[in-house]
Design goal:
heterodimer; A: about 120 residues; about 0% strand; globular; B: about 325 residues; six-stranded mixed sheet; five-stranded antiparallel sheet; 11 helices
């Protein structure tokens, strides 16, 4: 069986660091940060853990319906989505994730653009 | 620079928040830079309660007086991040003034990691649950393909060694004029009917100690004594055979397709084994199976043909005339 990026980069031990790093970046970012102003810390961490884990092929528990429901009250534009994409790339680079794997993660993310942005 | 000055500068610069407050008034006398970053820089009259809004300052100071030391946590928002600080109250005396020394450690990261571990363990638990459920489904599927003993052996060793069962009984069955039934009816109807019939046979067989080995189109093949020994295996297959026919007779009265079965029974040795590597299936074959097939070929519709190998083992519950099995005329109430 081929290894998922999740397994390849050391499972939860690495993914937990990726989650923390992405979490820091999201909160500090002026474009996407405001979406998290009123979100509780445990809820946000839970969201990020599932999010990164799902993108990397780890124990996933996000269904597309979940994702759509979690974001439907937010006014997310393409600009925000693109910014988040940049932050993901930056984070993955920090953890020396291969371009190939990073592209796969981004493709999985891009595939869900329509769930977050109302057209 | 004097030692005191160096000490003060260090105290101001460290990553731990430190503040001094009067115990009776709660007024802050000193706050280092870290404390001021978190809670704001106090002026001469600022009290603990004013800066640490999430904290019951009075209660905390009272506890400090009672217990000599007190620890609590304060959570507040800094920009959009929830910061949690562990605050330790220590007692000190400056001249006549009783002071509380507040030592504040930032434990936000620990809290965040705790939240992440909670989230992760919930995911893992859910996954474990799903895996267990899938495993049960696979097990159920495999148990349909092989007896439990063979499955256990397969699970432990990855193979099932062929075994000779010296003395067992075999039942084979097929339907008369199956070709005509096929030609006259919709395939979906035939499959659904066979499904019904075989399910009923399985249930009857189970009741009498027979286990189905396989079905191939219109042929049904069951065995008694494999892999677990059955004392009266001949009686088992005889009982099952009689009830198979009785079931079909009853069924035919209310269904358009008339199913006429021919049954062959035989006793003797067989081999039981998993055959195949990728598409493995538990199979039973050998002299008793061949004998049952041969004798069945000579049976008339709705008759049970008995091979001589089984004839002697049948007790008074049954009677055999011209190689054909029937229930004895005065059936024993026990087997009804």
């Amino acid at each position: 069986m081929t290894k998922t990026p999740y397994e390849k980069y050391g499972g939860f031990s690495t993914v937990s660091r990726i989650v923390m790093s992405l979490y820091d970046k999201l909160l500090d970012d002026d474009d996407v940060g405001p979406f998290f102003d009123d979100v509780d810390m445990p809820q946000l961490i839970d969201h990020q853990t599932k999010f990164v884990s799902t993108l990397m092929g780890g124990p996933a528990s996000f269904t597309d319906t979940h994702i759509a429901n979690a974001h439907k009250h937010l006014e997310i534009d393409d600009m925000h989505f693109d910014r988040l994409k940049e932050l993901i790339v930056e984070t993955l680079e920090e953890f020396s994730v291969d371009t190939e794997d990073s592209d796969a993660v981004l493709a999985a993310f891009e595939a869900r653009r329509g769930l977050l942005i109302e057209t | 620079m004097s030692i005191e000055a160096i000490n003060e500068q260090l105290l101001r610069a460290i990553g731990v928040g430190v503040a001094l407050a009067e115990i009776d008034t709660g007024v802050l006398r000193f706050a280092n830079d870290t404390f001021a970053d978190w809670f704001g820089a106090p002026d001469d009259s600022t009290t603990i309660a004013e800066v640490m809004t999430g904290l019951d300052a009075k209660a905390a100071l009272a506890k400090l007086v009672d217990e000599g030391r007190h620890t609590t946590e304060v959570t507040f928002k800094m920009r959009r991040r929830s910061i949690t600080v562990a605050v330790e109250f220590n007692h000190a005396l400056e001249g006549q003034v009783e002071l509380a020394v507040l030592v504040c450690q930032n434990i936000t990261r620990i809290k965040e990691l705790e939240a992440m571990i909670d989230s992760y363990s919930m995911m893992v638990e859910r996954n474990t649950h799903e895996i267990r459920r899938e495993k049960e489904q696979v097990e159920k599927l495999l148990l349909n393909m092989m007896p439990r003993a063979a499955y256990e052996e397969y699970k432990s060793f990855g193979v099932v060694a062929p075994r000779v069962f010296e003395d067992v009984s075999v039942l084979t069955l097929d339907f008369a004029e199956f070709g005509k039934i096929l030609a006259d009816n919709d395939p979906a109807v035939i499959v659904s009917e066979l499904n019904d019939i075989y399910t009923a046979f399985d249930r009857i067989g189970e009741q009498f100690g027979c286990e189905r080995v396989r079905t191939t189109g219109d042929s049904y093949f069951a065995v008694s004594g494999v892999p677990d020994p059955v004392n009266d295996h001949a009686g088992s297959v005889a009982n099952a055979a009689i009830r198979f026919l009785r079931y079909l007779e009853r069924r035919n009265t209310s269904h358009p397709i008339q199913w006429s079965a021919r049954i062959g029974l035989a006793s003797g040795p067989v081999i039981g084994s998993v055959v195949g590597v990728q598409k493995y299936v538990y199979d039973v074959f050998g002299p008793a199976v061949a004998a049952a097939d041969v004798i069945r070929a000579g049976a008339l519709p709705m008759q049970i043909a008995v091979d001589p190998s089984l004839e002697d083992r049948i007790d008074e519950r049954f009677q055999i005339a011209n190689g054909t099995l029937a229930e004895a005329e005065k059936p024993n109430a026990e087997i009804r």
